[in-house]
Fold:
Amino acid sequence: MRGQIADALQTAMESGDKRRIATLRLVAAGLKDKEAAFREAGRGQPQDSDIVSFLQCMLRHRQAAEDGFRALGRVEEAAAERADMDVIRSLLPAPVPTGEIEAACRQIVSDTGSKGLRDVGRCMNALKERYQDKLNLIEAGSVMRGLLS
Structure:
């Protein structure tokens, strides 16, 4: 993902898109901070899942800022936050479609031999391993509980 972010920044610089450049520079700077924190903690380099979590956190912050600006009637600032969120979303892996979530849940239930609600945790852990951050875990948890009840 680091390479994807660097490539996106390079492309934005070549196109001269100032908003995209600024957002991608902010992402790159935040990622460097994250890498430094990992090194200080002796954890090596952040994995792609750590980077995805970081980007999702950035999205939540932008969403909160946009909501605040809209509540104050500051439409231009809210639009700027929305544009930043679009750039950040373009860096995230595509989520698994809803129909595939149910199929994945059924496969996990079958693979693990799960029978009841007490097995939801084991199934969710298996889902996390296979799909990492591509899966909406809230939706998957709901589907999983429906299958196991």
Notes: The chain has two domains: 2-91, 98-148.
